[in-house]
Design brief:
By secondary structure, the chain is an alpha/beta fold. It has a single domain, classed as Rossmann fold (3-Layer(aba) Sandwich). Helix content is 35%, strand content 22%. Helix 6 packs parallel to helix 7. The chain is globular and about 40 Å long.
Length: 212
Amino acid sequence: MGSQWSRDKVYVRALKEGYRSRAAFKLLEIQDRYHIIRETDNIVDLGASPGSWLQVERELTAGIVVGIDLSYIPPIENVISITGDFTDQMMPETVRPLMPFTSVVLSDASPKLSGQKTYDQARAIELGENALRFAEKILKPGGNFVVKSFQGQDFNILIGAVKEHFLSARTFRPRSTRRGSTEIYIVAKNFIGNERNRETSINGTNETEGPL
């Protein structure tokens, strides 16, 4: 590991605490602020490799945790890992039999960065939109959603789309984000639902929570 990483205090802390990457602290900050994960929630994590968010999720819930990524995810005890593309329209059907309902969908997925900000931001927005489409298909009414994106001229398109499907949506930039990064998270709670999951929801009713 190069000197750049050895000087990264957050990364070093992650290693000391047993997490696979510094990203674990971003989810911990989101959870501390917004309480998106409850003790019995079933979770689907998109773009989950190398698995630091999965480690945190496994600590926070006794429910089912599923991680999906194009890259192999090294095993984590009591976590189901799928090597595949969450943007595939059939992926929700692969996940659905693994859990009776889905309470939370999280996405820390990021496109391979080219260094060209406009292009990279457009790719991130597209990835976020795909994560939202996945969540629309599988979340139970009342469920929560978190997705990473990058600030830029198209960001309002993504957050606007999220707001159409959730009662509350906020933006959040964790303290553990690298200096100079434009990444930002959309934290959405209380999925309104759609015709399909209103009919098939196990609970049959829309759960409600307090504001973010």
